[in-house]
Structures
1.
Amino acid sequence: MGWSQKRKTKDSVERYRACYRDIRGQIQSAGTFSKERDADKAWQRAELKIAEGRLSDPRRGRQTFRRYVTEEWLPNHVMEVTTREVYTYQIGKHILPWFGPMRMNEIMPAHVREWVTGLQAKGVSPASIQKGAVHPERDLHRCTGRRDLPAPLQGRQDAHRPEETAQDHQPRAVRRHLRGASR
């Protein structure tokens, strides 16, 4: 149950802070208002969003991508040691130089497409682009409230260069089988 907290400014003006508890039980603010009625409505809306599972902390979007990846995502992501080494390399080499200083809520699908195009122009393999793009990028979209990945990252067929065919991306065993059937 939320509440309105009466406060006085330096000028002795009464203000009301809308307070509620998040899913971890921490006290959060839904804003400060001049009328108690507005503060009550604000904490009620916040609690409704929590009940619907839609409320996220807006501060998460204001953090830089570098901070999110290095302090939250990578240390808390459970994976094998060798996988962690590959991710750390890919993130450091391809992702952080581009997205690192950007705030999470400022990264748009157009930025990701521009990044992919830049990597393709540098000759980075489609597999490396795919590996580097799908892991923290998916969490990025969850954090910013987006549900879909930009088109170049949704499927492997979108990540290949135009001169490559769909057969180039089939598993090796399937390609061998197809070569044998055509002879």
2.
Amino acid sequence: MVPKELRSNWKLILGDSKTKLPKLLYEIKQIDIFFHVSLHTYEHMMFEFETVWPHIKENGLIVSDDIYWNTAFIDFAKKVNSQYITFNGIGIIKKNF
């Protein structure tokens, strides 16, 4: 699904985000957008949000689907005091400094 001209900037990483995500963030340092589509337990969502947040650039986004399965998305947005929007079970948190 990734267009040929973009494949050099794309890499599929399979595995548990609790081990893969910290290593990836160490390598790439900063990101513009993080899309949570993995395990939807409160604990796992909070782990991903808290792990990725320091690496999100100014005006970057965390996007998550199925945000109403638990309160992790809203709790995290409040914890970091950031703007967020929700629609059709999807949430977006914008990082401002």
3.
Amino acid sequence: MKNYLLIAICMVSLAAHAQLKITPICPALSVDVLGGKVNELPINSTVGQVKLKLPCFSSAEDESATAKCGGGVFFKDKDLYFFTERDYIEIGPNFKGKLSLPLMGAARTGLFKWLGHPKIKDVNWDAYTTEYGLMILYFTKAGKINKIQMTNRSPEMIKLCDEKL
């Protein structure tokens, strides 16, 4: 009888520790490149705001002096990165979502119709003035856009992350 009671207690104890984990589902990602928002989240969103609105992130790091690149929320599988302490959003070439302008893969020579003249030109990138601040477009050797960075900081104040996440 004692053995049956012990087995029953063990089974109840094991069942109490089992948990169902819910896989977070994100809405489709939509980037307003002229307004500087991802799913209505502005560039200066906090880690908590991004995690709440887009719970399907692959990793997150609170803002701190020891955090890699100052902290942020990262969607590696979607090639989208919120650098919250540095106030910029980065969109890579494998971005899974919708851009308000079809910039990814667009030719450098065809941007004037959407963006006008760049504020700053370089061999590998151009920076455009926007309503939120600055949009930096990076180009392949063939002159096609392969990375977009949106920031509310001035060119003198922006601090980009060079580390691989």
